[in-house]
Write a structure and sequence with these properties.
Helices cover 39% and strands 15% of the residues. With 353 residues, the protein is of the alpha/beta class. The N and C termini lie far apart (51 Å). Bound molecules: 4'-deoxy-4'-aminopyridoxal-5'-phosphate. Residues 85-87, 111, 151, 155, 181, 183, 207, 209, 215, 220 line the site of 4'-deoxy-4'-aminopyridoxal-5'-phosphate. It catalyses: L-histidinol phosphate + 2-oxoglutarate = 3-(imidazol-4-yl)-2-oxopropyl phosphate + L-glutamate. Its cofactor is pyridoxal 5'-phosphate.
Length: 353
């Protein structure tokens, strides 16, 4: 390999995804999936669409889905962009909107795809450290920048930023694109969508993978001023003019319309989270305040790496990150109450040993 190519390859650090093992009976609390499954109406819609119409290309504009999303959020279809999971929407966003002459700001610690995409698309970045309680200090963002990206709630901490903080950022940076990644917002966070009508520099990204339990379908979307959306469409059309397959469009449209299922599942998850927090605090875990479908916890005396391994031996899978500042923490997705009970029982056994 020539030196030129090996330099490029060594600079590209791929995102390391959570494990997806195919072991039956595993309590899988490692990738923030929703335990309740997608809307039964959406599954039925996919079934109804599974016939010889699959020989036809899908609607390249995903019109029905974009209209359903627009109606759900009080926007127009021109303010909606859809893609294969919010990871793909984020990729197009990095390419189209975050690649300025001025740097992109994001928190350190945050969703680890941001550094990966920044490297991939040559985006200059400044990482802004969280404070000693893993909160964002907004005054630290008071510097020249071309764009800001923040997950709200943050990942993997689960800590949410109040809407007033986001509005302050938008107002302080009228010339910068501010991207709010709301993958987990439906579990108690405050959505920035109501600010879209007043801030043309705001792009909100959401996913069907978490609160709508459709991680396997791969559908995410961006909401914002039509000019920002148009930038994403141009990148998408230059990359692959079919954003979503036929079945994904049908299933996602039905899922977005099934508000009752969405509401029931997200409420159950919030209640289970509150119960699990109490149980883990009683076992001497520090639990960061979470507004997500996961919690980020560290034990008062047991190392994170040992706890993760001991849980794995007991068929409970959780996530841990290698970065030194957070390597003692375990990120635990909120499962069903039965799954949470198995986790707690396993932890009690481990801590008693
Ligand atoms: N943003 C954040 C903060 C996430 O944690 C995730 C899930 N790993 C995503 C976006 C991407 O989710 P998806 O591609 O499934 O929509």
């Amino acid at each position: 390999m020539s030196r030129y190519w090996s330099d490029i390859v060594s600079k590209l650090r791929p995102y390391i995804a959570g494990e997806q093992p195919r072991i039956p009976g595993l309590v899988k609390l490692n990738t923030n999936e929703n335990p309740y499954g997608p809307s039964p109406k959406a599954i039925e819609a996919i079934r109804q669409a599974t016939d010889d119409r699959l020989r036809l290309y899908p609607d390249p504009a995903a019109t029905e889905l974009r209209e359903a999303i627009a109606a759900r959020f009080g926007l127009t279809a021109e303010q909606v962009f859809v893609g294969n999971g919010s990871d793909e929407v984020l990729a197009h966003t990095f390419q189209a909107l975050l690649n300025h002459d001025l740097p992109l700001l994001y928190p350190d610690v945050t969703y680890s795809f941001y550094p990966t995409y920044s490297l991939l698309y040559g985006v200059e970045t400044i990482e802004i450290p969280l404070d000693d309680q893993f909160r964002m200090r907004l005054s630290d963002y008071d510097r020249p920048c071309g764009a800001i990206i923040i997950p709200n709630p943050n990942a993997p901490t689960g800590i949410g930023l109040p809407l007033a903080g986001i509005e302050a950022l938008l107002a302080a940076h009228p010339d910068a694109v501010v991207v709010i990644d709301e993958a987990y917002v439906d579990f108690g966070g405050e959505s920035a969508v109501p600010l879209i009508s007043r801030y043309p520099n705001l792009l909100v990204i959401q996913t069907l993978s978490k609160s709508r339990s459709f991680a396997g379908l791969r559908v995410g979307f961006a909401l914002g001023h039509r000019d920002l959306i148009e930038a994403l469409v141009r990148v998408k059309d230059s990359f692959n003019s079919y954003p979503l397959d036929r079945l994904a469009q049908v299933g996602a449209t039905a899922a977005i319309k099934d508000e009752a299922w969405f509401e029931t599942c997200r409420r159950k998850i919030i209640t289970s989270r509150e119960n699990l927090v109490r149980e883990l605090e009683a076992l001497d875990f520090e639990v960061l305040p979470s507004q997500a479908n996961f919690i980020f916890v560290r034990h008062a005396s047991r190392p994170g790496v040992a706890l993760q391994a001991a849980l794995r031996e007991r068929d409970v899978l959780i996530r841990r990150f290698a970065e030194p500042r957070i390597s003692e923490f375990l990120r635990i997705s909120i499962g069903t109450d039965a799954e949470c009970a198995r986790l707690v029982a396993a932890l009690k056994e481990i801590l008693a040993a």
